[in-house]
Design brief:
Number of helices: 13
Largest sheet: 7 strands, parallel
Number of domains: 2
Order of helices and strands: EHEHEHEHEHEHEHEEEEHEHHEHEHEH
Structural class: alpha/beta
Radius of gyration: 20 Å
CATH architecture of the largest domain: 2-Layer Sandwich
């Protein structure tokens, strides 16, 4: 019998998730969306949707009373309130938030319950830290105390169309968070907070040149876990050349560093949207010289759906499969990036991660 899943938010991720779940036949999704215009668009696409505010108890009560799971495809600030609703109505819960403080808030909600909780909660699903975290840990777990690991991830337009070399592919507010917040890394085996947009280097993947620099959030959970077990571990974002120079012009010369919300609005309104993206994931370790090429994955979107969206919802679907298979510990918050590749691969949705484009040449720095 199909599991009933309520999806709070009918944006890019929520709608793609509903489409993938419905196509599987194993799930019966229903989107809750507040925008009347967006509701009409979702109906035109044939997606099941209810118009209303996902934080409205009256709107959600009937839906959640009959649901098996609740997915928060909304901004991070709304996630704890939705988690509380899920717990109240006995629904398994899943979100896409990268923020540690969100997981901590959900954990506090769990501790506040007086009875045993049989519900599973997975936080931080998606591309990074979700799938990327699993891929990175698969590599890191085979390293030793002297190894140095750099994880490179880029979500980029397939073609550069402006000086920034960037488009509205992913959430702009999340991008600004990554550029503003400190990055956790391991240096000489110790957890260290380093500045974002630092440790610049040039890299080549295939025949394309990119620049790489530190950004926050994606590997924080692995940094703490592998303290003292590997020498260095750092996460870097890949961008087209000169992106960093233009960003520093905006942040420092035009003083947007003091006005992050203004920067978000500027980029949201100025950058064109595209689904023709390229997702690059490369993991370089000091063992590469002994064991061959670095881990390398390349995925490309098309006019219908961005690769970053497809991978994000595929990971969430894998996690839902694991929840209903009983593979997640009930009554606690599972960091979705902690779910190993071999466990994720038990889901039929994992096949979407196998279709990466082959790249002939290794990562070169």
């Amino acid at each position: 019998m199909a599991k009933k899943i309520v999806i709070a938010g009918g944006g890019r991720i929520g709608s793609a998730l509903a489409r993938l779940l419905a196509a599987s036949g194993d799930y019966e999704p229903r989107i809750v969306e507040v925008s009347h215009q967006r509701v009409n668009q979702l109906k035109e696409w044939g997606l099941p949707v209810v118009e209303g505010d996902c934080l409205n108890q009256t709107v959600m009560a009937h839906l959640l009373a009959e649901a098996d799971g609740l997915v928060a495809a909304v901004t991070s600030d709304l996630v704890p309130r939705l988690a509380e609703m899920g717990l109240l109505y006995g629904c398994h819960f899943l979100d896409f938030s990268e923020k540690i403080e969100i997981r901590q808030q959900i954990g506090s909600l769990l501790k506040g319950r007086h009875q045993d909780c049989s519900l599973s909660i997975a936080s931080g699903c998606g591309l990074a830290p979700g799938y990327v975290g699993a891929l990175a840990e698969d590599v890191i777990s085979r390293c030793d105390r002297d190894d140095e690991i750099t994880v490179f991830v880029g979500v980029l337009p397939q073609r550069r169309t402006n000086r920034l070399g960037y488009c509205n592919i992913w959430g702009v507010s999340g991008l600004v968070d990554e550029y503003f917040n400190e990055c956790l890394a391991l240096q000489d085996g110790k957890v260290t907070a380093i500045a974002p947009l630092s440790q610049f280097e040039s890299v080549t993947v295939g025949r394309q040149s990119y620049e790489a620099f530190t950004t926050s959030g994606s590997l924080d959970h692995l940094v703490s876990r592998y303290q003292g077990k590997v020498k260095n571990l750092v996460f870097k974002t890949l961008r087209y050349p000169k992106h960093l120079d233009y960003m520093l012009f905006l942040l420092d010369d035009l003083q947007f560093r003091k006005r992050p919300s203004s920067l978000s609005n500027l980029m949201l309104n100025a950058l064109s949207a595209t689904s023709s993206d390229r997702v690059l994931i490369a993991i370089e370790t000091t063992r590469n010289s002994k064991k061959g090429r670095p881990v390398l994955r390349v995925f490309e979107g098309d006019e219908v759906e961005a690769a970053s969206t497809r991978l994000t919802v595929a990971h969430a679907c894998c996690v839902l499969d694991l929840i209903f298979a009983g593979d997640l510990s009930p009554g606690e918050v599972t960091v979705a990036g902690d779910l190993p590749l071999d466990l994720l691969s038990e889901s039929s949705f994992f096949e979407m991660f196998q279709a990466e484009k082959e790249v002939k040449k290794s990562l070169a720095t």
